[in-house]
Amino acid sequence: MLYYYNKMIEDMKQTKKTGKLLFLMFCIFILTSDLALYAERQSELIFGIYAYDNPSRIYQDFNRLLQYLSQKTGLKVSLVIAPNYISNIRNIGEGKVDIAFMGPSPYIRVNDKFKGVELIARFLMRDNRIDSMVIIAHKESGIKELKDIKGKSFAFGDPQSYGSHFYPRYLLNKAGVRLKDLKYYDYLGSHSRVVLAVSHRDFDAGGVREDIYEKYRDRPIKIIGGPFRIPPHVIVCRKGLSPDIKEKLKDALLNLNDTTILTSIDPEFIGFSAVKDSDFLDARKVVNFVEGR
Amino acid sequence: MSIKEEFYKRLSFFMIISTIFISVTSIAVVRKIVINDMRDKGDSIARILSTVAKDSMLVHDYVTMERYVREIVNDSNIRSLIVTRSDGEIIAKAVSEETKEKGYNLRYPITIGESALGTIDINFSTERVNSISKKIIITAVVFIVIVHGIAFFVNNVIISRLIVLPLRSFAQAVKSLRDGMMQARIDMNTENEFKDLASAFNTMADTIEKNFREIMEKQTEIKAEKSKFEAIVKSLADGLFVTNRDGIIISFNHAATIITGYSEDEVIGKYCEDVFKTKLCEDACALYNEDKIIRNKETELISKDGLRRMVSVSSAIIRQDDGKVLGGVQTFRDITDEKQKQAMLCHTEKLAAIGLLSAGLAHEINNPMGNILGYAKLMLKDHSLSDKQRQRLEIISEQAEKAGTIVRRLLNYSRQHKPEMERISINNLIENVISLISLEAEKKNIDINMELSDLPDIKADIKQIEQVLFNIIINAVQAIESDGVITINTLQTDSSFIEVRIKDTGPGIHPEHINRIFDPFYTTKPVNKGTGLGLSICMGIIKEHNGGIEVQSEYGKGATFIIKLPVWKD
What we know:
The complex is a heterodimer of chains A (293) and B (570). Chain A has 293 residues and is of the alpha/beta class. Helices cover 46% and strands 22% of the residues of chain A. In chain A, α1 packs antiparallel against α2, α3 crosses α9 (243-254) and α3 (55-73) runs antiparallel to α10. Chain B is 55% helix and 21% strand. Chain B is built from 14 helices and 16 strands. Chain B has helices spanning 3-59, 62-74, 127-178, 193-235, 254-260, 264-267, 272-276, 280-284, 336-380, 387-415, 426-443, 462-479, 511-514, 534-544, and strands spanning 78-85, 90-95, 104-112, 115-124, 239-244, 249-252, 294-302, 308-319, 325-334, 422-424, 446-452, 458-460, 484-492, 497-504, 548-553, 559-566. At the A-B interface, α7 of A face α2 of B.
């Protein structure tokens, strides 16, 4: 841009008439660009989500929901898939996305670090599986309970994940197993990776949400701890989102009962319900405990 | 099978065989290409997946690998894809469907440096190959249908126009020629072999027409000659028949039909001897007589009605120019009547001689017999005669009277003077005669039946005809020993004659006598019972009346005398 600007200045020096014209055009360009951007912000909602699965799969799963929300709000709804939990937290916290789907610890993190993010609705799954987690181990690992994990390897999901990191850490700790007691451990980035890594004996054990475990329960894995209740997964909106849109969103989600939309996200998904910040009090304690606060 | 059908059949057969060959070859080539393509594709997929698998194993991201494996299997012809770690752990597996199909297998290693991390096993489905093969077969079938359509079109349009239509023109022209339309020619507008053929045909037709006309002219001449010959043959008064060299009749003229009673159709194709049933052929045909020319050979044949006819035959051999015998020609003339007339003439002359002799003799005997009778009568008037003398004189007188009667009859026969014709009713005359004879008939218990038709009057001498009727009817009465029937009927045979039939139930006349009963002095009666002149006189009287008399008899079953007399004409 600077290059073009300098070039324009030089050209202006050469011919005043041409220069004036170009300057005018530049001003018009700058002005119209801002106006267009402003108009675009008003006409589109950006839905943020983290890559808990392959992005193409996530897009495919959420496509119907996006169309539904677009229909209900009258706005175009686009999906932005963040590569990890932190990116998703930043996107909603910095207002780069208007609404976002996230788990308990990301919500706690964004609420703590970026004030003004508001809860819209929580996910409801059959048997509340999304609201519980389990500690799993390979069937042939010889691990029967949590304390047996000492000296074994352990797989975590994303470091910002409540179900696959904070709460498993909390449970291990409660069972007397600290990180240094483990043979080795790693953060694999997602619940699914944890399950498969354990099933293929890359790790002896791992912590995952119960609904993820259920998807792979035919694999050679077993539950050695849990299920444990964890706070809900939620949809939040950024600070400063129009109340009108916010209400429309809340209304649309809480009244969504089209099973084709719900089951396209997950066959066990049954809808949304209201949620409040106080639902995360215990989770905050766990996170603080793990982070040593 | 027509050319069109034959061509269609062969063209279709060729095209079908070609299509099948191309299809089979195509399937083989395509299968090879597709399989190679699958191998290349599988190789490529395996190479890429190997890299993905490597990364996945290193970062423990089996989710992504599973996803890749599943997507690859879902979106390709790969039936199963298995990623196996070097320790044997299957870390990703996707199977599209379980079938018995063996498919094609491909194994690709997952390595990092020189270390083997695992293997990728890919099993390709041959479904795509089969699907392509099926499509080729369907295409081939469609092609065959189209080919049939093309063949049909070619057959109907091109072949018809180029071959069938010209051939039909030829066929039509040949048919016309065959039917006698000599001016039939082919007008061929095409510039191909058919034009040459048509030209050759037309030249040939010109030649045929010329020859045909010449033949027709010759035929006309021959027909004229034949007609002339046939007219001559037909108009011949003599019978004529021609035989081939085997003796089979091949020509028979009208005169021959009249003589024999056989029509031409009845004898043509038959052997000469089978037709005539006599030795005519042997006796009078040159063919049977070492080629001799035979002239007026008298022989006989049996006509169709079974009568024996006397014929005079002349015969010669028919030869070709080279002398080879073709057959024989015979002319013959009926000489039966001629022969009969000759016999009759001899007989009449004999009778005339007898008559003359008898008249002379009677005349010479009559005077002395008159003297004998006169003197005998005179001597009987002498009363001095003894009884014996008187008896002897009476015998002389009686015998002299008898001799006188004979002489008188003889004189009557020889004199036979001209009848005095008048108009009389034959039926009335018959009734008069019957009244004279009925007494005699009753004595023998003979019934006399009369069946008399209405007849015109006849022209006759009443006394002479009465004598004839009396003579014949009394003969019939005498012929019947006892208990018999005499039937007399009259009828008109034609406008000129009437007929009187006198039939008896007597013993009939022996065949050896029947031809002589009208001869004078011929009698079958015992001596002194008949003179043998009665029927001879009857025959003479009837002939004088221009009539006729004949007898029919089957020996042992009676006899019928038929008298024909002329009708009175004003």
